[in-house]
Fold each of these.
Amino acid sequence: QVQLVESGGGLVQAGGSLGLSCAASGRTFSSYAMGWFRQAPGKERELVAAISRSGGSTYYADSVKGRFTISRGNAKNTVYLQMNSLKPEDTAFYYCAADSNMYLVDTIVGVTTEYDYWGQGTQVTVSS
């Protein structure tokens, strides 16, 4: 099992930046592929960014490509999401999630239902 705790959300003006962190405890962190998801009111949860177990492969949704950066520090049991050039449409509750299926170390997990551990989430609000 792994426990995930997000931090770093808040209120920012459009064009600003925020950095999210997700601290993991439990089993060996490098066993998990990780993802950041978001859910806005009335919308489905969507995968924003994902990173492989090794950190060598990353994925970004088209809506955030070039603005968001996912990274991980396996020694610190933490995954990060740096968000730049934020837009009002980035406003949502952001969650980190872990996949425990032990895929190959550079595999990206792109399917929401593959993730089996979730954090409690953190709110990001971007004002116009």
Amino acid sequence: QSPLVESGGGLVQPGGSLRLSCAATRFTLGGYAIGWFRQAPGKDREGVSCISSGGSRTYYADSVKGRFTISRDNAANTVYLQMNSLEPEDTAVYYCAADMMAVVGGPCRPSEYDYWGQGTQVTVSS
């Protein structure tokens, strides 16, 4: 079983909203930076948003800034990605990842994260 499990994906119309959740199955998320990444068919995996272990620092890719919000509830051992005003270009498999050493403040780089979930599909289409 993957150390992280994503949920909340699905099919939504343009302009709609979804909230993704990332839960840990084998460890406590507190103390780990968490990143959300996405990969569309034929494209590289890209960083969408990431959050520091305490939640005080966040980063958003320009393409989602103002539309997506990352948050974490360490007591619930879960990190969320609220996605509003979804666009067809947001269609992708979304992954969450965790790492104790990743620095949050600039672009979220997949290479900096050790633990990954299996992904959840988000499809934005009318």
